[in-house]
Design a protein that fits this description.
Elements (H helix, E strand, L loop, with lengths): L4 E5 L2 E4 L1 H20 L4 E4 L6 H11 L2 E3 L11 H19 L7 H18 L11 E5 L5 H10 L3 E5 L10 E4 L5 H60 L1
Helix pairs in contact: 1-6, 2-6, 3-4
């Protein structure tokens, strides 16, 4: 991390904020490119200072997230993950139908299992294929997520503190990942960029649909008028 440190003062390392600002700008362009190419983004942050922020902002921009515990194989073994999601769905259906034929103890056990699965899987229930980018808060804590992403060739963007190894990270954002304000500011900036790009693409798609419908209307109008125009032209020819 030496290349991202401005200076050392009284045993504390001060991060070069000019470099951090440039890294954030580059990160914004990366996430916009991912959205433009219709690739999903996975936010990962299970430490106390990050989990609430990660959940809130990932949900706000409509992307996947893990904020409780990284389950081994979430990326490298998606089949097992999907089986766990199906198990959760079956439990939910069974409880929703009134738990007929089950004892109170069985209902209690099912409810506990539902809560446990929901806690760990709520942010990745719809993830059926690997994401195009993984955004991680504190890669030293989430080393399993970094390793799985690297194994699959999925680029990793991370909020990296002075005690982390930046080498396995493709897109480094040097910052204090223990400070809630710092984490929220950076993740919020990335989430806002995702939202803006999605809105931009939605507007562009809407304009394309309008143009297509306008062209269709013109073609219909032309095909409707053409027979009458030809008939009138023939009528005028007979008069002459």
């Amino acid at each position: 991390m030496k290349r991202f440190i401005f200076e050392e003062r009284n045993g504390l390392y001060i991060i070069d904020l000019a470099k951090t600002l440039q890294q954030i700008r580059s990160a914004v362009e990366v996430v916009k490119d991912m959205v433009a190419n219709y690739k999903a983004i996975l936010f990962v942050g299970t430490k106390k200072q990050a989990k609430a922020v990660v959940r809130e902002l990932a949900e706000a921009c409509g992307e996947f997230y893990v904020c409780e515990r990284w389950l081994g194989g979430m990326l490298t073994n998606l089949t097992t993950l999907r089986q766990s999601v199906k198990k959760l769905e079956k439990i939910e259906k069974r409880i929703a139908t009134g738990s007929e034929g089950l004892t109170k103890k069985e209902v209690s056990l099912l409810t506990k299992e539902q809560i446990k699965l929901e806690k760990n899987l709520s942010g990745v229930r719809g993830m059926r294929k690997p994401p195009g980018l993984v955004i991680i808060v504190d890669p030293s804590k989430e080393h399993l997520a970094v390793a799985e992403a690297n194994k699959l060739g999925i680029p990793v963007m991370a909020l990296v503190d002075t005690n982390c190894d930046p080498d396995p990270i493709q897109y480094v954002i040097a910052c204090n990942d223990d400070a809630l304000k710092s984490v929220k500011l950076i993740v919020q900036t990335l989430a806002q960029a995702i939202i803006e790009k999605k809105n931009e693409m939605r507007i562009a798609a809407g304009k394309g649909d309008e143009e297509e419908s306008r062209e269709d209307e013109e073609e219909e109008e032309e095909s409707f008028i053409r027979p009458y125009a030809e008939e009138n032209a023939g009528f005028r020819g007979e008069e002459e």
